[in-house]
What does this fold into?
Amino acid sequence: MSDEHELPEHAARNREHWDEMAAGYVSAGERQWGATEASWGIWNIPESELHLLDGVEGLDAIELGCGTAYVSAWLARRGARPVGIDNSPNQLDTARRLQHAHGLEFPLLLGNAEHVPYPDASFDFAISEYGACLWADPYVWVAEAARLLRPGGRLVFLTNGYLLMLCAPDDEDEPATDRLLRSSFGMHRFEWPDDPSVEFHLAHGDWVRVLRANGFEVEDLIELQAPGDATSNAMFVSPQWAQRWPSEEVWIARKRG
Ligand SMILES: C[S@@+](CC[C@H](N)C(=O)[O-])C[C@H]1O[C@@H](n2cnc3c(N)ncnc32)[C@H](O)[C@@H]1O
It folds into this structure.
């Protein structure tokens, strides 16, 4: 349990949001926990193409915003020692149920990934798939990830593509257009009409600067392309859009030694 920090306004709102959303994420969690191969993001791009988990055997790992914790399960099966932290009690209830169902135990903490109750340099690997990297303030969680990682440690996060956030209509049920609908300069905190949650998205230059300012070197930025036969339940982007432009991006950074 790590909940002793008073939650900032965005994290309190996001906790309420995710507690409400959790029931809708159970079946995806069950599918991903049971999957024979890890796959990433809304287009389920196989790990054999992305290699985000290469070399994790024997590493101390933390998943920042683990949700139902299937990424942590994949880490554990590859011989890492994962810890999952998530801000939603209801999401963690699902994660715990799936741990028992699959006979795979690892620590799960309730809390804000901007303040993790572990000492400095506790981990070799930190990962977030649409977790803290989307719902926490990058100027806070990136510094916290840097504190948690040992020198040489790797940070991997997957989030919405920068261009997608510029082309997404205010109505979240409308798919992305081929027009730039908002400014790139000043991107940071996003609030959508009729949605109480708070998201964070940065332009690429700002990601590079916040990572470097916190002692990371950027090793890669992988812009994900939807496969030709892609289908998705996501309302906010069509496969056709995501075959032309990157709807998702993966950042890979290493903490300087
Ligand atoms: C979309 S889920 C990500 C988990 C999983 N990879 C997935 O795609 O379903 C987003 C998760 O981020 C968590 N989250 C949001 N803000 C957070 C924060 N500040 N600290 C930790 N977790 C947070 C939410 O509670 C939610 O479970």
Notes: The longest strand covers residues 149-160. The chain has ten helices and eleven strands. Residues 9-159+202-228+249-255 form a domain with the Rossmann fold fold (CATH 3.40.50.150). Residues 57 and 78 are 6 Å apart (CA to CA).
